[in-house]
Amino acid sequence: MINLTIDNQKVAVEPGTTILEAAKNTGAKIPTLCYLKDINVVGACRICLVEVEGAKTFIPSCVTPVAEGMVVRTNTPAVIKARKLVLELILSDHPMECLTCLRNQNCELQDLAREFGITEVRFDGAKSEYPIDDSSPAITRDPRKCILCRRCISVCTNVQTVTALCAENRGFETLIAPAFNEKLANMECVQCGQCTLVCPTGAIVERDDTAKVWAAIADPKKHVVVQTAPATRVQLGEALGAEPGSIVTGQMVAGLRRLGFDKVFDTDFAADLTIMEEGNELLQRITTGGTLPMITSCSPGWIKFCEHFYPDLLDNLSTCKSPQQMFGPLVKTYYAQKEGIDPADIYCVSIMPCTAKKYECQRPEMNSSGYQDVDVSLTTRELGRMFRQAGLDVTNLPDEKYDEPLGISTGAGEIFGASGGVMEAALRTVYEVVTGETLENIDFEVCRGITGVKEATVQVGDLSVKVAITNGLGNARKVLDKVRSGEADYHFIEVMACPGGCIGGGGSPIPTNTEVRLKRIEATYTEDERMTLRKSHENPAIIALYDEFLGKPLGHKSHELLHTKYTPRGVNK
Amino acid sequence: MKSLEELAKIRESRREALKIRQGVPSKTEKAHIMMCGGAGCISSKCLDVVEAMKKALNKNGIADQVQIVLTGCMGPCDMGPVAIIYPDATFYRRLKPKDAETIVEEHIMKGNKIRRLMYRAPGSKEPTPKVDDIDLFAKQKKVVLRNNFYIDPTSIEDYIANDGYVALGKALTEMKPEDIIEEVKKSGLRGRGGAGFSTGMKWTFTAAAKGTPKYVVCNGDEGDPGAFMDRSVLEGDPHSIIEGMAICGRAIGAEHGYIYVRAEYPLAIERLDLALQKARENGLLGQNIFSSGFNFDIEIRIGAGAFVCGEETALLTSIEGKRGEPRPRPPFPANEGVWGKPTVLNNVETWANIPEIIRKGAEAYSSVGTEKSKGTKVFALAGRINNTGIIEVPMGTTLREIVYEIGGGIPRKKAFKAVQTGGPSGGCIPAEHLDTPVDYDSLGALGAIMGSGGMIVLDEDTCMVDIAKFFLDFVVDESCGKCSPCRIGTKRMYEILDNISKGKGKEGDIELLEELATTIKATALCGLGQTAPNPVLSTIRYFRHEYEEHIRDRKCTCNVCEFEE
After folding, report:
1. Which whole number is the average pLDDT over B492-500?
2. What pLDDT band is residue B1 in, cutting at 50, 70 and 90?
3. Distance (Å) from the C-alpha of residue B523 to the closest C-alpha of chain A?
4. pLDDT-based confidence at B268, cuts 50/70/90?
5. Model confidence at A203: pLDDT above 90
6. Is A48 one of the annotated active-site residues of the chain?
7. Per-residue pLDDT, B36
8. What is the arithmetic mean of pLDDT over A343-364?
9. What percent of chain B is modeled with pLDDT above 90?
10. Which of B523, B526, B530, B531 should one mutate to test binding to chain A, selecting the residue with the greatest count of A CBs within 10 A?
11. Is B61 exposed, middle or buried (0-12, 13-18, 19+ CB in 10 A)?
12. What percent of chain B is modeled with pLDDT above 70?
């Protein structure tokens, strides 16, 4: 242990602990801005400075490891004065458009300015002026609001290994942007939106599509249906002030009805359908010598990543569309026919924990109903915003149930929201389909949790199914490299682009960090356990769908509506 | 190179051929014309003079009896093109191509030296013909630039003839690694990049650090405006760097070195590259050097011209091919340097000292200098001074000696106002401190720094607000943009200075500048930011009245600042 003194208190911590972490033992909260635990540790903003005896300058506590006998003071008048001036400097190059900023009241810079009691900025010099980059269907950049903390670069480069953003120019002209200040839409950006989760300000945000949804609701000719992704029910509460891990399924449904949606359906239903198609696809590939390992295709950020960086592995991707995109065409075909509604009048909205879904629903191949299958995709954050605009205190509404038939789902569909969930749901079904036996213990614990790469071998009848589960694209890369080199002999790989799975998606409420992710995961499995039905093939609405409309999994109609193709995109040279 | 004997053989045979440069007339050769090939002289068209010399020699049929050697920088740049003619060591200045014939036909063929091309000391009517008698050289002591008058930088034999690679031979065959480090420590050598950290300590830390392989790196990213000390060494004596680095490799257990040179130094890169090739050909780099089992080689890395890449962590990051930005320390390069491995990083001038320390011993080396600053220091003299160029003086030489005795004083009888040392990281020292001995600690105490060796002399016509603005403009441009105090703070300081210089200053601006300056110094991430406010702080410290005059009276006594109506 290393012994040191922080604010006159003796502290003993493990070697390698930073001053910032060590100070937590004394109750002192050192303010930070660029620092983001485990993701961005660069010492750039200079807000977390402390006094260390014997040092010539103030010391950044987030990057400085403790040393034996160190004497630290975290809150002397000199330290506070220095932090305040640094903050004043940062504010002097900030547009100060707080009232009209998407991140108003959810901004770390604003919080600090309040905590430090900044009432005046004495510098009226130049401000960084850059145009807004709204080229991407999912993510909007406003570099004027950027404080150059580098969190977006770190998460994009180190966690997602995409590297769509970097620092350009230098000095006051330094700009965080795609290389050569290219438009984001022209980059390998996979639209995962992890950058929007970590941005401390409003410099990089989801594209706000709420106006389109309000317009559709206001249009009397439109039959507006909404589908809610598995993760949204364990996230939305946070966007409305509830604790992380709150489950608000029924309240969300009630709220959506009160917003004026004609039907409130569940993406969980489509997740069950995905399992029917994907599970059968896996069995077909295994039994007929198809391309293995088969890799899941639910995560549009992952799909784009694969198209850019692993175009040689596109045949390994399941041809199944994601649940969002299976739902879309079904609403405009099956449901439209059943209800006698002209599909041209149906407006399909999805609520997703995801920014990439905005991109996915606009992909040109996603119109197998003859229309754009999903008209608009909102993030959980945007839905939270709509509820606030509508003055709906959703967390205090009575529970309501989803509409039938596309709102009927199982626990298997629900766990799609967490890393390992697609795999577990698939195993629950594949096991019973292959063996014809009832699965005794349906909880595949090996699939669960936030670990980056999980591996397991599951006995399904005579077959030992070797699986891998990854979350976060950097972890996917590790597994894909093994597949590429022929080292891996998996049958089935689940990839979710975002750390922790969809519950940690780029459209989640802010903050989303490891702690919050774990709580959402726990809530997801609680929700699964609450369900009467927990296996996709037991979903009566799915059984009816095949009986009435699709025929059989992987059948002709399925291929037409529920399966897709991919585009090798490669990397900008 | 297999043995010291083999080295000695080359040395002796080459020495014989170079005796003429020691003043011994040769039977076969009439003269060696050492033409300064430093960038200053190249700009003043010394290559045209060389061409004319060649023509004149051919015309007179003595081309085979006269060698023309393009050397590294000889120092007195304002007199360029300059040359020394051996064996009589005559120093000529301001040469024009038309002077070539006269020199060849009169001086070389008949022994009639050309008076009009000789140097005249200020106030003296008689010229000084011999280089060694010239006042501005006599006050200097050449350790780092020991070879620049004498060798052809493209010839490894020339370097060897002047005791080159003796130190490496000694280090590899007679010394243990810990003895080498001990010797460097005892020499008192401090880093010539500016910060003045003990070189021996640096090596000790790296030698003790866990992790392999280890690396030896040379910082040749000299970036201070007007400074070209390191370029002069790289161009004039590249083998001294290679030898110094190889000695360090042995001392710390490294087999690989990098020399990081900025792309703006193409001649330095060319000469280094050639020197590396020759060293390899002669077995002075590569495997089993001096049959000692020691392997060492060096790669050149070319920087893209960012000032901040002179900062050690930025430089190391740049070597790895990444954006050259500093990172927090610790970890220090001694523990985690290039590729995350233990690394010694020293500046060009520091490396050039190493062979001398090992060859002559720490004691001899440290006999020059002051108590805490040993050896010599190279400076680039510039500004309002008669003799601009490169000089090398013992540590402890006073500013007055440098300005008046070596620099020849201020032109046009103007009064001395201040000397700016340390470039954008340094400060201005006023006339009352002219008798300060130049060493790390004395300059630091005055609010300036030794820095890498830029020295700009300012006379009474220099506006100190304008000078501060000039240096701040430079750092605003060169800040990497990573940390907020440097990125935004220096910009705000510049804007305030700019307002003051345009007559738009306000009461309180000086205090705001001071507040910004002290905070940036205490909060910035790297040395660039931590020293960036120095030019402003030191000018406020010594010339506050000039700032006040600009703000209160809207007046620039020096008539430099143009006030807006």
Report:
1. 98
2. confident
3. 6
4. very high
5. yes
6. no
7. 97
8. 98
9. 94
10. B523
11. exposed
12. 100
Q: Does domain B18-134 sit in CATH 1.10.630.10?
A: no
- Of A238, A278, A307, A382, catalytic: A278
Helices (H), A172-311: 194-198, 210-218, 236-239, 249-259, 267-288, 300-309
Beta-carbon count within 10 A of B123 CB: 7
- Backbone angles phi and psi of B384, in degrees to 5: -85, 75
> In this structure, what DSSP letter does residue B516 have?
H
Asked if A386 and A210 count as a contact pair (C-beta separation under 8 A), the reply is yes
Domains, chain A, ordered by start? 2-75 (3.10.20.740), 125-206 (3.30.70.20), 210-562 (3.40.50.1780)
Sort out which chain A residues have CB atoms less than 8 A from B530's CB and list them: 57
CATH fold, domain B156-366, is Rossmann fold (3.40.50)
pLDDT at A95 over 80: yes
CB contact under 8 Å between A171 and B477, yes or no, is yes
Region A551-570 average pLDDT = 97
- Binned at pLDDT 50, 70 and 90, residue B124 comes out as confident
- Tokens, residue A506: 């780029």
CATH code linked to domain B376-459:
3.10.20.600
Per the CB < 8 Å rule, is B480 touching A170? yes
Chain B neighbors of A70, CB-CB under 8 A: none
A445 carries an active-site annotation:
no
Put simply, whether B304 touches A (Cβ < 8 Å) is no
- Which of B491, B512, B519 lies at the smallest CB-CB distance from A172? B491
Segment B539-555 mean pLDDT:
97
How many whole angstroms separate alpha carbon A347 and alpha carbon A223? 6
Question: Does residue A201 contact residue A148 with C-beta atoms inside 8 Å?
Answer: no
pLDDT of A433: 92
User: Is cis: bond before A131, omega within 30 of 0?
Assistant: no
**pLDDT attached to residue B108:** 96
Furthest CA-CA distance within chain A: 80
For the residues A173-181, what does the mean pLDDT come to? Answer: 96
Distance CA B313, CA B338 (A): 9
Which positions in chain A touch B329 (Cβ < 8 Å)?
none
* Crossing angle of the two packed helices B229-236 and B348-360, in degrees rounded to 10: 60
Does position B276 have pLDDT exceeding 90, yes or no? yes
The class of domain B464-552 in CATH terms is mainly alpha
Which sequence spans correspond to the domains of chain B?
Answer: 18-134, 156-366, 376-459, 464-552
List the single residue in B479, B482, B522 with the smallest CB-CB distance to A58. Answer: B522
Give chain B's largest Cα–Cα span.
Answer: 77
> Which stretches of B282-385 are DSSP H helices?
312-319, 348-360, 362-366
Q: Say yes or no: ipTM exceeds 0.90.
A: yes
Whose CA is closest to A461, among A438, A434, A425? A434
* Test the B interface: residue of A89, A165, A175, A180 with most B CBs within 10 Å: A89
Is the omega angle on the peptide bond into residue B330 within 30 degrees of 0, that is, cis?
yes
